[in-house]
Amino acid sequence: MGRERAPGSGLEAELAKHKGVEIHGNNLRISFMWRRLRCRETLGLPATKANIRHAAQLRAAILHEIKLGTFDYARHFPESKHAGNYSRTRDERISALLERYKPLKAVDITSETESRYSLALDICIDLLGKDRLGSALLPEDIQHLRVQLIEDRATSTVNHYLATLAGFLRWCESNGHCRAGLSQACTRFEMSAREPDPLTKAEVEALLDVGCLHPADRAAITIAVYTGLRPGELCALAREDVDIETGVIHVRRAITATGTFKVPKTGKPRTVLLFPPALEACRTLLAIPGKVPQHPVTVQLTRHETRVDTVTPLLSPTLQARRKRVNTWFVPTAWNTKWSTIQKRAKIRHRRPYQTRHTYACWCLTARGNLAFIAKQMGHKDFTMLVEVYAKWMDDESPNELQHIWRGLQDKA
């Protein structure tokens, strides 16, 4: 409802001096914007010059509190029918909320994960606006954020940012700092499934015979292809993890890009049975005199728990280093550089190091390996991922599957 005409020229002139103050019925009313809503509240004061000035001062104080994020609707207007609805959340800037959230979240994650989460949240909050009030955020703001993020970032990166932001917003919702359901606007983008791109036998031979100039590199790539270890697990292997007598490798740890040791991805160690080429590769590496003595490494189990392994690296940059000061252990980024150099030398199509893991899975599946066995070797919780990711290689055998099953039934008859 617009401003009603005030009786008397003196009142009209006074009202004209003060924006947001008007006469409604027989009383004064103020209006202001809060949380993107226009709020109007009648003060129960008759229209006099003194009361108009009082109303203007009240409105100015309210606007100041809104700017500071301290405005409490119910305190100013306890009798208002809107007080209950408007005061369900507390006004605080999202930058201040984020600083409170970070240490609360950090206790449940590792320091490396904390660093990634912190970066993602900082980027999102910067784009949303650090000085924005949590209570003023709308789903539309999150939708605009999605548009900004996807403009110049990979889909996988944006989805990580949105998932991390959703966790922060759920915390804000549960503590009354923003409207309920805001986190649901953090809808992740659909991603086209990346099919595995395994190496062929000929490409592996080229890598080993042409690409590798040192026996340690040849042995390392052989182990990667014939065990399906993740790059971080491969780089963290120790001589003490290899049991030549029983033909197994014990995967007890992985190493991150920053050189931090952690448990394998599923959180549990596993034992990998070695194909003959991988077993021979382990013998080769164990026969090479190591330049690094056995030493303790700290493996992060959780944020608050660690263990110490006293081990000797199976693969180490020191084996081929020309410089005096090099890292004791390979990290995935350094292994990626070496892998790229070996591929270029072998003149094969470029692939990420992780494709050696896909190669192992695809070769095992096309050889009709048992799904449960392959999944256990690779460190999956079950064989669901094998079916989802490697269905193409399993389907390649489907035309002959009926005959294969029939022969098996006949043999048991």
From TrEMBL:
Which residues belong to any copy of the Tyr recombinase domain?
194-407
SUPFAM superfamilies, from UniProt? DNA breaking-rejoining enzymes (SSF56349)
Molecular-function annotations in GO = DNA binding
Q: Which range is the signal sequence, renumbered to this chain?
A: none
Which Pfam families does this UniProt record tie to the protein? Arm-DNA-bind_2 (PF12167), Phage_integrase (PF00589)
Ordered alphabetically, the record's keywords are:
DNA integration, DNA recombination, DNA-binding
| InterPro entries in alphabetical order | DNA_brk_join_enz, Integrase-like_cat_sf, Integrase_catalytic, Integrase_recombinase_N, Min27-like_integrase_DNA_bind, Tyrosine_recombinase_XerCD
Name the source's superkingdom: Bacteria
Name of the protein this chain belongs to: Arm DNA-binding domain-containing protein
Species lineage: Bacteria, Pseudomonadati, Pseudomonadota, Gammaproteobacteria, Pseudomonadales
